[in-house]
């Protein structure tokens, strides 16, 4: 018998929404920048998401136009917060 726990962030869109929620709660530094570790740490260690789920969530958020990831990968910037974006 296998014991498998359900992964809440296995769906990239669910992971992207949680990343947006985390980023929205962080005070940006210069020019709206949010250091990636401020989003990465709570996602991986507090919420127990995995690295691939984090990557898929970031990619999904970028594709949907919610986040901008700097080419260096050191920070993200929120692009848009629609009325229904943070709704479940």
Descriptive account of the structure:
With 88 residues, the protein is an alpha+beta fold. The protein has a single domain (12-78), classed as Arc Repressor Mutant, subunit A, CATH 1.10.10. 42% of the residues lie in helices and 11% in strands. The protein has three helices and three strands; from the N terminus they run H-E-H-H-E-E. It has helices at 12-24, 36-46, 51-63; strands spanning 33-35, 67-69, 75-78. It has a three-stranded antiparallel sheet with strand order 1-3-2. A hairpin with a 5-residue loop joins strand 2 and strand 3 (75-78). Helix 1 (12-24) packs across helix 2 (36-46) and helix 1 crosses helix 3. The longest helix has 13 residues, at 12-24. The protein is elongated, with a radius of gyration of 13 Å.
